[in-house]
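Researcher: Can you fold this with NAP in place?
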Amino acid sequence: MILVAGGTGRLGCRVVKVLTDAGDQVRVLTRDPRRASQLPAEIEVVVGDVRRGPLDAAVEGCDRVVSAMHGFAGPGRTSPAAVDRDGNRNLIAAAKRAGVDRFVLLSIVGASPVHPMSLHRMKYAAEQELRASGLSAAIVRSTSFLETWIEIIGAKVDDGGPALVLGPGQNPINFVCVDDVAAFVHLAVHADQRIGAGVSVGGPQNLSFTEIAEHLLARQGRTDRPKQVPLTALKVMSVIARPLRPGFARQARAAVVMNTTDMTFDALPIRNRFPDIPTTTLADVTDAKPRPDERRRRSDPGLRQNP
Ligand SMILES: NC(=O)c1ccc[n+]([C@@H]2O[C@H](COP(=O)([O-])OP(=O)(O)OC[C@H]3O[C@@H](n4cnc5c(N)ncnc54)[C@H](OP(=O)(O)O)[C@@H]3O)[C@@H](O)[C@H]2O)c1
């Protein structure tokens, strides 16, 4: 049995699917079982919150654990410190007590103790915790998910509204498709030798927000310019929203960082080592028919996850 914490999320759903397609039994940890209604009926669902341990009941009977959760966008007390650092600490401790054979942690390319974003610092802390735990472990670091940003930039495009670009939107950023990442997680769960202690996964393209916006508009035959949120406004929001809407402030801060720091990633070396995993492009994602779980996410606000 494999426990997937975050199995209701954008990546987690895909991880659950590749694992079950391969014949694995899966249990999903969620704070709200309604979010698990999109998952296949054979999936076991356990209700819990990693911020509030102990999590022994969640991991009981599991030989593997995947942590595919985050607390980046809030709301309220849901934060990278509470979920990514402390929640992972709780989950790792429970996995140790239960004698779990393998723990796979989803982290982020650039995770470091001095990163300007708290998410990256808290992911780094979780990585350290896992390394020190003595568990057999793999850390899968990923660049930004294509699907997350298509949804943010193109939220209104299908209905004739503008494409939204946060900041100047000229900085090249590496984006990866969640299905590609899920394929790496599957290998990590099953201790594929090429994974070793972990991998950093990126996609085949470094794209600016504006390039994504223009691609989404062009698919609709449109030539209008994307709507831009000025960098100064993002900087101001990242500070003034902090006391009342910390998740929103973190998102504004992320947009500033993504516009102003090196976000490129050369995925070629890792992709050459894993020729069996697809290298999905932006056009591949937008040309694919929306998957049923994606469609449900878009139409049901109750199922929407944080970017
Ligand atoms: N999005 C990106 O661009 C990106 C880039 C690099 C790495 N990653 C990493 O990839 C993983 C998946 O990201 P995603 O964007 O697919 O996530 P997502 O769709 O936003 O979903 C977040 C998940 O975290 C779970 N979660 C949040 N707080 C929790 C808590 N207190 N207790 C238990 N579960 C909690 C949620 O479960 P419930 O709501 O059901 O409780 C949900 O399944 C994360 O580890 C993330 O840091 C993401």
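Model: Folded with NAP in place. Residues 2-303 form a domain with the Rossmann fold fold (CATH 3.40.50.720).
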